[in-house]
Design goal:
505 residues; alpha/beta; 7-stranded mixed beta sheet; 13 strands; globular
Length: 505
């Protein structure tokens, strides 16, 4: 099995698929799966552009809309997680994952998917300390605040991921796990990104929840993006399990944004996409923990009088399989819920969430709640119907009236550095790792209300001048403000000519 991993896609699917096609032709190989580590930008139309938390001058339609409309077909099965530059209104339609276009699958806010015998986990969004404990209170129409908080990682998603006990082979996150730089060539990283130094020294670079999941799940591979640079590391866990970490750059010429992972044939299976029984069982058993309040909500733990371990039993997993009968994810469940791109259409912000039949069907079968439906129910609103002219002919995929109108009440060969252990003596040369040559790998040169008119963030917040802090400590998490870490893809002729240097993991 061969998998291509992409860093920040930024909507440039044409260029990414072109890159893979060239690599396949040159190396005489076939890629079975493409995985994108966030900032995918599944923008369908002008309304979706207004649901991205980027300045107006950076709102570009890019090329995803061609695959949504059917103008083009994704040549390879594509999986992705969300980042901080996304059409959040579209991704909110699919909190538990689903097709965003034929052959392109979103993994949801958090989730586990099986491809053949390979188990892939993902955590969408980026970490912001001040929003981590809050409920899932955001819904269109977004305010300036909720447009940014909507993609911030929440404790519920991380708590659910931490309940998994079956082995996760590949884990995805957009931002890096905190402390990961202690396991790789930190000095080489700082030569390329010197403004990371202060955050690394104060242990503030990266996501705390991702760090916890790294040491809880101990996946074989962990891939990330966000910081727009390549970085590799090996984490040697206490029980002798090993995680190979790799962060990738954004899709631009001469940037290390794509990597090929070659896995043993034991992972091949039938190479079909399937839901994960353990993950779905966790969703069922933790449904009562969902909160849609704009306030801190703590997860259960030891010392309380309620259940706090939700690792599914065999009976709970078997119940999920019996309910769904077939865990295979079929391509015919894709639904166009919004109009296709029309360049003449006005750029107006999305006004109301749209019901996605994929989510409605899964929630109805498993007896779980769609967070956005719960938000709207508390506000006395309902979700909009999908565009009727684009609904499929399969009867079971067309939402019935009771699904939309009922009030959903929530029930109570990779060349990596040698394994390293973080050292407190960072000046000791004997503790420094040695990493492979930079050119040896990678391709291509708190109110109880859910009303969104909440009190804005304090105007007296601390201002950080360091460019890397724009990624983590600004209110909107918009890394486009940094010249060094700009996420903008230009449309110049040189951008369409990608040089390729292919190495395998």
């Amino acid at each position: 099995m061969k998998i291509a991993i992409e860093g920040c896609a930024h909507g440039e699917l044409d260029k990414i698929y072109e890159c893979i096609e060239t690599l396949q032709d040159r190396e005489s190989i076939k890629i079975d799966l493409l995985i994108c580590c966030g900032d995918f930008q599944s923008v369908r139309n002008n309304e979706d552009m207004r649901a991205m938390a980027v300045p107006d001058k950076y709102q570009h339609i890019c090329t995803f809309y061609k695959y949504y409309s059917g103008e083009k077909q994704a040549p390879i099965l594509t999986l992705f997680i969300g980042g901080n530059h996304e059409a959040s209104n579209y991704l909110q339609e699919l909190p538990f994952g689903g097709w965003v276009a034929p052959n392109i699958y979103y993994m949801g806010r958090a989730g586990v998917i099986n491809f053949g015998n390979l188990r892939i986990g993902g955590l969408s969004g980026i970490y912001k300390r001040h929003d981590y404990l809050q409920g899932l209170w955001e819904a269109p129409p977004y305010t300036q605040q909720s447009l940014r908080t909507v993609y911030h990682v929440r404790s519920l998603d991380v708590f659910r991921m931490s309940q998994l006990k079956e082995k996760v082979n590949v884990m995805l996150s957009h931002d890096w796990p905190r402390g990961i730089t202690d396991y790789g060539d930190k000095e080489h990283l700082l030569k390329r990104k010197p403004f990371f130094k202060e955050d690394i020294e104060s242990n503030q670079l990266g996501s705390i929840p991702a760090e916890r999941l790294l040491h809880t799940l101990k996946p074989e591979y962990w891939f990330a993006a966000h910081l727009h640079c390549q970085f590799a590391a090996i984490v040697n866990h206490e029980d002798n399990q090993t995680t190979k970490f790799l962060a990738l750059d954004k899709c631009l010429p001469k940037r290390r944004h794509l990597q090929i992972l070659e896995l043993p044939t034991e992972y091949d299976g039938d190479k079909s996409l399937k839901l994960d029984a353990e993950w779905l069982a966790v969703l069922r058993s933790t449904n009562h923990l969902l909160s849609v309040k704009n306030m801190d909500c703590h997860m259960p733990g030891p010392g309380g009088n309620e259940r706090y371990v939700f690792t599914p039993t065999e009976e709970e997993k078997e119940a999920v399989v019996n309910i769904l009968q077939d865990l295979k994810i079929t391509h015919d469940s894709f639904v166009k819920t919004a109009p296709i791109y029309d360049p003449r259409a006005p750029k107006r912000a999305p006004s109301n969430p749209i019901l996605n039949p994929q989510t409605a069907k899964l929630c109805e079968k498993l007896g779980i709640d769609d967070p956005v439906q719960v938000v709207l129910a508390r506000l006395g609103r309902v979700m909009s119907q999908p565009c009727m002219e684009t609904l499929p002919s399969v009867p079971e995929l067309v939402p019935s009236e009771n699904v939309v109108t009922k009030t959903p009440m929530k029930t109570t060969k990779l060349f990596l550095p040698a394994p390293s252990t973080p050292s407190q003596h960072e000046d000791d040369d004997s503790q420094k790792n040695v990493i492979f040559s930079p050119g040896s790998s990678f391709v291509s040169d708190n109110a109880d209300s859910v009303n969104e008119s909440t009190t804005p963030l304090s105007a007296s917040k601390k201002t950080f001048k360091r460019r890397n802090m724009s990624l983590y400590n600004t209110p909107d998490g918009d890394d486009s403000v940094s010249t060094e870490s700009s996420c903008i893809l230009d449309d110049s002729p040189r951008s369409s000519k990608l040089p390729f240097i292919g190495n395998k993991l």
